[in-house]
Amino acid sequence: MLARLLQRRLLPRPLLSCLSTSHLYWRTPRPALSPPLRPRRAYSSAAEAALRESGLPLRNAGPTTAALLAYAAGNWTPPPFVPPGWSTDYKTWTYLLTLFAYSPYFLRLPQIEMLVNIKHAIPGEVRPLMFHPARDALVFQIDVPPDVEGKRPGGAQVHYLDCARFELWTYERTDVSTVDELIILIGAASTPEGVPLVRVPPDPEGEAALKRILDRDETVITLLESAFLGYAPRATVREEELQSADAADQTQREKLADAIRRTQAYLKEAEEELELDAADLEEGKEGGVDPATLREDQRAHAKIKIAVEDAKGKLAEWKRVWTSRYGPWQA
Fold first, then answer.
1. What is the per-residue pLDDT across 158-199, written as a single tens digit (0 to 9) for each?
2. How far apart are CA 126 and CA 158, in angstroms?
3. Residue 282: exposure state from Cβ atoms within 10 A (0-12, 13-18, ≥19)
4. What is the reported pTM?
5. In whole angstroms, what separates CA 187 from the centre of its chain?
């Protein structure tokens, strides 16, 4: 399943996630102040360590989108022919994170698994073929294995998902034998729904399992593994789950404010250190300090200046982000 594969191969565990792509946050490492600082005095060590350690999550950035796009490039094979109006450029797809990133519910299953594998009880990994941005539509393939009793034959199934309404349909064509032929028919239709579609009804047991997920019933994990997903998702706690977009924005605001304050504290101490160093260097020149020692001190002083300028650039960037979202920064 996609969640298991991404969790093992690509995606780090997220700090926060939610349904809206504009409120999805991940733990991202803060770029180190470069070059490394080796000042003669121990200054601002606490501020610098905190600045390096804490990450600033950015909207629609970081490993979330990058990992999903990397997975898509390696696993979502596009059809040879993409009809006009449809696309396989998933970096522009509005629903990429909504459907395939971790959801804000108990167990944090991607919503595509909750909808297809659980609610409609269709086994197998969802592999998108193409999407239609104007119609909020996704056409995907799922390779369904045969059931153990031989009542259901295996093979590729192609479905149509109305992403805005979360309604699932399947194509009803008996005169095509391959997925590529079906894609050509879809392209020839006057509307994305022009090829006959049949609504896929929800599975009663799947809907019951979803309710148990929403009720935070941890005993549902065994059922999900045996009947729906083929793997056992990890139980989560509320701190890992996002309850609302408002909570996400508040968390983002607090982290951004904290990053600005940490950088300001770092700059204050570093600039004070620069002033002291500059005075020491002048005294060294006049006092006959060993030339080798003086050159070493000058190099250390230059490194601090470079780091300070880098931190100033970061501070200006984060203040611009703050102003664009919340108005002028007020300490």
1. 999 999 889 999 987 667 778 888 888 888 877 766 788 899
2. 10
3. exposed
4. 0.55
5. 31
Alpha helices in the chain (DSSP H): 2-9, 45-53, 63-75, 96-100, 111-112, 179-188, 204-214, 220-223, 245-286, 291-326
How far is 50 from 36, CA to CA, in rounded Å? Answer: 15
* In the block, residue with structure tokens 């019933």: 217
* Distance (Å, whole) CA 317 – CA 128: 36
Residues 32/260, Cβ–Cβ less than 8 Å = no
Structure tokens at 187: 């392209």
Q: Which fold has domain 245-326?
A: Methane Monooxygenase Hydroxylase; Chain G, domain 1 (1.20.58)
Where do runs of H (alpha helix) occur along 194-244? Answer: 204-214, 220-223
Q: Where are the domains positioned within the chain?
A: 2-26+62-240, 245-326
